[in-house]
Structures are given as structure tokens and as C-alpha cells.
Design a protein that fits this description.
Shape: globular
InterPro entries: NAD-cap_RNA_hydrolase_NudC (IPR050241), NADH_PPase-like_N (IPR015375), NudC-like_C (IPR049734), NUDIX_hydrolase-like_dom_sf (IPR015797), NUDIX_hydrolase_dom (IPR000086)
Distance between the termini: 37 Å
Helix content: 25-40%
Cofactor: Mg(2+); Zn(2+)
Family: Belongs to the Nudix hydrolase family. NudC subfamily.
CATH architecture of the largest domain: Alpha-Beta Complex
Order of helices and strands: HEEHEEEHHEHHEEEEEEHEEEHH
Largest sheet: 6 strands, mixed
Radius of gyration: 23 Å
Catalytic activity: a 5'-end NAD(+)-phospho-ribonucleoside in mRNA + H2O = a 5'-end phospho-adenosine-phospho-ribonucleoside in mRNA + beta-nicotinamide D-ribonucleotide + 2 H(+)
EC number: 3.6.1.22
Length: 345
């Protein structure tokens, strides 16, 4: 290399991702209100409460939303009920447990999510169970239901943030049912953001478990992108190297380990690109860009069965021919590849 000559590396232009669909929260979480007893009733009296509906991974949306989502046109919004329309069974469970999650406030409005699955679980007597069942039946017919992955790419920013929090809390509240210390049942606390053990004695409080994972845009010296096919995917779906962070491991160390484990690729420089929650059920995706130190790839044959380097022209041709299907629009991988590609996918 000529000592007087300057060389340019596209890697030096790597910037954080300007948009990630599940990282759009625009409300003030108002964490100081979460442990306030009777919060929903207090705020409802001000007639400034709006309530969304969540059932598993599905969100209640106005009629016509499914068609717009399938067509990929128009902006989607949540079905938001005024607080006074919320049925009387809310907050009637033993110990003050509630199927409502306080999501935060914005523009002098306060937002809650009503978890229909949790409401059904908390129904302890026949009259309450019937009221919950009747409300769920009405909700199923009066609204359309859309999963978060379909809603997020075209949803209003505020509503996507609300929906992401609601789905994450619902997934946790409905899956963790017992105290990990003594085995007694748990119940919701802090307006959905915590759980408490029901066993008598010292109070045990629990928070939602988050499982961080890294995902890496690996490029070589020619600025080609490394794409990989996971054995669990349909044949033409290709994405980026990703994996969970292990105990005692940093994000950066996890990036290097996953690249070696799955692809036998040593990495040099790396840069942070962004992060977004991935509540399916409880991940946090942390994105990096990394420079490969070799072009030689050896797949592990277990998680990854095929990998290939592509230039932008080669990727464009593969997309047009349908030999490569890009990651879904809700995923961080979609926007990482899009940034490298220089065009919308």
C-alpha cells in the first residue's frame, strides 16, 4: 500500500438506523404512577382515558384494517375505547389484581391495555366469568384483530409503541404464573408491570424477563453482504447472523461468537446500529454492523444450512427473480439490509 495514498472504506459510513418499527414509543411511561392503587378509576373520572384491547399477539383494530394491511396501503390505528366503556369486571379480581396495563400518557390522555386472556384467567366466579366471556364475544365481532408483526410497519407511531408494550406485558403476565422461589401462584401488580407472590410472608416482586439477542450485518472488503438461511425457514428466506446473548456475555462478544459458531467467520471492526423490542415472546434485538476478516464461510449445518455473499446488483437480481425472500417488514433485519442495499425492499 502506498503510504501517500488514502483508501476509502464504506464501513466508515455506517450510521444508526433512523427507523425501526417496534421502537416507536411516543408516550411518557409515567413510571411514578405504576404502583398507584386505583389508577384507572382515578384517571377515568377525568374522562381522558383510552383503552386498547390485546389478546395474545393480536390487537383490536377498527374494521377495514385487515384489508389495508393485506394491501400494504394506508395507515393503521388501534381501536381505542373511552375509559368509561370498559366493563365492570376490570379490577374485580382478588387482591386488587387487574387485567389492565397502564401504558403511559401523551397529550393529556392516558392509555391502558385490556388483556382479554388475563381477564378470563382472573375470573374467579361464575358471574364474572360470564361477563368476561360476553365481552370477549362482543369484542371479537365488533373489531378486527391483527397481529403485531402485521400492524407495526403501517401503524401510527404512537399506536405501535402502545401495542408493543401491551403485547410484551401480555406475553409475560400470561406465561409466568408461579413464584420461582416457592411455587405459589403470582398475581399482577403495579398496573401490569410487575407480579407479586401470593404466599404469606415477605413480599416477593417480579419483573418481566427480557432476553437480549444480537443481529449482525456482516460485510466483506468489497462491501458485499453475508446472507444466511436458517434450517427452520422456508427455502428462499435469507437474513442476517443472529443469536441470543449468553450469561456473562457482552453484546460485542456475542456478535463475534455467533459469527464463529454459525459461519466460521472472524470479525474485525463493528458498529452499533440500533435496537428494538421483539416481544415474541420476550426478546430485545440489538443490531450491529461488522467487518469480516475473511470471505471463507463454513456453515454449522444445524442452525444455518446455507450462506452466500451478495453484491447490491446480485441482491437486486435475486429479489426480482424471487430466489431470495427478504426478512419481514417488522424485523430489524429488514431495515439493516435496506440500509446496506440503498433502496426500500
Amino acid at each position: 500500500m502506498d503510504a501517500q495514498q488514502t483508501y476509502f472504506s464504506p464501513f466508515s459510513l455506517a450510521q444508526t438506523l433512523p427507523f425501526l418499527p417496534l421502537a416507536q414509543s411516543q408516550v411518557d411511561y409515567c413510571t411514578h404512577l405504576r404502583r398507584q392503587s386505583g389508577l384507572f378509576q382515578q384517571l377515568s373520572r377525568q374522562k381522558k382515558v383510552l383503552v386498547m384491547l390485546v389478546q395474545g399477539q393480536r390487537l383490536g383494530v377498527p374494521y377495514g384494517s385487515l384489508e389495508r394491511a393485506q394491501q400494504g396501503s394506508g395507515t393503521l390505528s388501534l381501536a381505542l375505547l373511552p375509559g368509561e366503556y370498559v366493563p365492570s369486571f376490570v379490577g374485580s379480581a382478588p387482591g386488587g389484581s387487574s387485567s389492565l396495563y397502564f401504558l403511559g400518557s401523551a397529550s393529556e390522555q392516558h392509555f391502558f391495555a385490556l388483556d382479554l386472556d388475563l381477564a378470563k384467567k382472573l375470573s374467579t366466579n361464575s358471574s364474572t366469568a360470564k361477563e368476561v366471556g360476553d365481552f370477549i364475544d362482543r369484542a371479537q365481532t365488533r373489531f378486527e384483530w391483527l397481529d403485531l408483526k402485521s400492524f407495526a410497519p403501517r401503524g401510527l407511531s404512537r399506536d405501535v409503541g402502545l401495542a408493543t408494550s401491551a403485547v410484551a406485558l401480555s406475553s409475560w403476565q400470561n406465561s409466568q404464573q408461579y413464584c420461582p422461589s416457592c411455587g405459589a401462584s403470582t398475581q399482577p401488580f403495579a398496573n401490569g408491570w410487575e407480579q407479586v407472590c401470593t404466599q404469606e410472608g415477605p413480599s416477593r416482586e417480579f419483573f418481566a424477563r427480557i432476553e437480549p439477542a444480537v443481529i449482525t450485518e456482516i460485510v466483506d472488503s468489497k462491501d458485499r453482504l453475508l446472507l444466511a438461511h436458517n434450517t427452520a425457514w422456508e427455502p428462499d428466506r435469507y437474513s442476517l447472523c443472529a443469536g441470543f446473548v449468553e450469561a456473562g456475555e457482552s453484546f460485542e462478544r456475542a456478535v463475534r461468537r455467533e459469527a464463529m459458531e454459525e459461519l466460521q467467520i472472524p470479525l474485525g471492526h463493528m458498529r452499533y446500529l440500533g435496537s428494538q423490542p421483539w416481544p415474541f415472546p420476550s426478546s430485545l434485538m440489538v443490531a450491529f454492523k461488522a467487518q469480516a476478516l475473511t470471505d471463507d464461510v463454513t456453515v454449522d449445518g444445524q442452525e444455518i444450512d446455507h450462506a452466500l455473499w451478495v453484491s447490491r446488483d446480485e441482491y437486486s437480481q435475486a429479489l426480482s427473480q424471487g430466489t431470495i425472500v427478504p426478512p419481514t417488514q417488522a424485523s430489524v433485519a429488514h431495515y439493516m439490509i435496506e440500509q446496506w442495499y440503498g433502496h426500500m425492499l
